[in-house]
Amino acid sequence: MGKTKPGKKDLDSYTIKGTNKVVKVGDCVLMRPADSEKQPYVARMEKIEADHRNNVKVRVRWYYRPEESIGGRRQFHGAKELFLSDHYDVQSAHTIEGIASVRCLITRMISWFSVRDARTGNASKNVNFLFNLSPFFSCKLFVVYFCR
C-alpha cells in the first residue's frame, strides 16, 4: 500500500466496532470469516487508511494455522501454532473482531526435516517455517508463532 492515495488518509489507530478496544499498526487482530462456523483469522495490521467517506480499510499480513497449509497439521505442531505468511490483503476494518495475542519464538533448528516441494516433487533439506507462498527457501532459524 506504500503511499496514501489522493482522497485517503492514514490513521494511527482504529477502535474496534462495538468495543472500546483500540488497535494500531503492528498489532495482531482476529478477523471475522465469512463462514461463521470457522475460527477467526489471525492477521498483523500493516496500515490503517480511511477514505473521504470515513470508510476504514486495513492492510494486513496473514498468519495461517498448520491445517490451512499444504502439509497440514503434524504431530510436532503446537495446538496454537501459526505461520506468518507473505500473503497481504486489504480488508474492511469492520471485520476486526478483537485483538490477538501472538508471541514469537525464534530458536535454532535442532534437526533438518526432509520435505518435498509440492510443485516440483524435488526433495528439500529445509522447511520454511515463515510460511512462504513462493518456493521453499533456505533458513537456519526456526520461527514459531503462538496465538494465546
The overall strand count is 12
What is the CATH fold-level name?
A: SH3 type barrels
Helix content: under 10%
- If you average the pLDDT, what whole number results? 75
Q: CATH top level? A: Mainly Beta
- How many helices does DSSP assign? 0
Overall radius of gyration: 17 Å
Secondary structural class = mainly beta
CATH architecture: Roll
The succession of helices and strands, N to C, reads EEEEEEEEEEEE
Low-confidence stretches: 106-119, 123-142
Query: Any idea what the shape is?
Result: elongated
Task: Report the major sheet.
Answer: 8 strands, antiparallel
Task: State the end-to-end CA separation.
Answer: 29 Å
Structural description of this entry:
The chain has 148 residues and is mainly β. The chain has one domain (9-147): SH3 type barrels (Roll), CATH 2.30.30. Helix content is 0%, strand content 44%. It is built from no helices and twelve strands. A hairpin with a 6-residue loop joins strand 10 and strand 11. The two termini are 29 Å apart.
Brief write-up:
The protein is 0% helix and 44% strand. Mean pLDDT is 75; it is low at 106-119 and 123-142. The protein has strands at 9-10, 13-15, 22-24, 28-31, 41-50, 56-64, 81-92, 96-99, 102-108, 115-116, 123-124, 141-147.
